[in-house]
Amino acid sequence: MTKILLSTVKGQRHDRRPIWLMRQAGRYLPEYRALRAEKGGFLDLVNDSDAATKITLQPLNRFDFDAAILFSDILMVPAAMGQDLRFGAGEGPELRPALIDHNLAALSAVPARLAPIYETVHKVAARLDPATTFLGFAGSPWTVATYMVAGHGSKDQAETRRFAYRDPQAFQTIVDAITDVTVDYLAAQFAAGVDAVQLFDSWSGSLSPAQFEQWVIAPNAAIIARLREKVPGAVIIGFPKGAGAKLVAYAAQTGIDAVGLDETLDPAWANAVLPPEMPVQGNLDPLALVTGGIALTMAVDQILTAFPERPHIFNLGHGIVQDTPIAHVEALVAQVRR
Asked: pLDDT tens digits for 20-45?
């Protein structure tokens, strides 16, 4: 049975567009909220492979999506590298010790922290419909490093950007270490049963062109090349959020199979400047999905018509937000299917 989304990432066009949504397993679903209330906090769910399996499959049980994406978090990599990770109630993540004032050598790796993730992959792969693509993922080194250095998220990643300017050698050491762990992590996800993976560079938009080349393109290219040495033919989607015009260089130089577009990009522009054979993914504004109605219909139409010849996976330009009505997701899927 053909996995339409997987074959689209590989460059094949189909009569219907495959669709999935970033963060499709999460807080907008009442069944997710119920399970979280039962099981505890976010990390409790990630580290409980039975719960994480249920959550990964929840949106597939509700909507006609063409892919499941592993329920986990990009910060499991720094946790495996030895930082202590916590999510406070109603707060963002905290990582300790923060590398802004601690040497990377102070960390003691705890690779066993990734074992529940691989178990989740095994369990989901065993239960997934044969026509559904299974996506694993990891954060790209720049984005992961912003959390590891600062110890928390931020709006402009200023602490990490200053650190990279001030001591590029020390920052390169951190990026290289993240790269090493990420290659092994993604290879293990493939071994456990995913069909393809996505590299999330959620904060790449904060970098200058020179820094983007150094901290986004170079490490992503290294991950992709090394991952394909371990997993020949590994299928990889790259998502450099906020890349803007730098997306062209990213697509040309990293070796990705398909590129994700964020909601700020004109899809017609992307179609004109990207290599004609490269599949693209995206790029509905998550807030258009929240709004629904004619705003949603028009936005979806614009995206669908922007790629008349190019392999295209319909998705959001970033993750689905918590207050998204279920009915709007149903309307979106129906429109894309039409």
From this structure: 999 999 999 999 999 999 988 899 99
Judge whether residue 112 has pLDDT over 70.
Answer: yes
**How many Cβ atoms are within 10 Å of 338's Cβ, its own excluded?**
8
Q: CA 47, CA 39: separation in Å to the nearest integer?
A: 11
The residue assigned the tokens 């960390």 is: 107
Segments of 140-230 assigned E as strands? 196-201
CA 237/CA 198 separation, integer angstroms: 5
pTM above 0.85, yes or no: yes
Secondary structure letter of residue 319 according to DSSP: P
Closest CA to 68 of 189, 235, 194: 194
Angle at 59 between CA 334 and CA 121, to 5 degrees: 135
DSSP secondary structure string, 134-157? EEEEEE-HHHHHHHHHHSB--SS-
- Which residue bears the tokens 């499991």? 76
How large is the angle between the packed helices 168-192 and 115-127, nearest 10 degrees? 40
Active site residues per annotation? 23, 27, 36, 73, 147
| Spatial distance between the Cα atoms of 267 and 21, rounded to a whole number of angstroms | 17
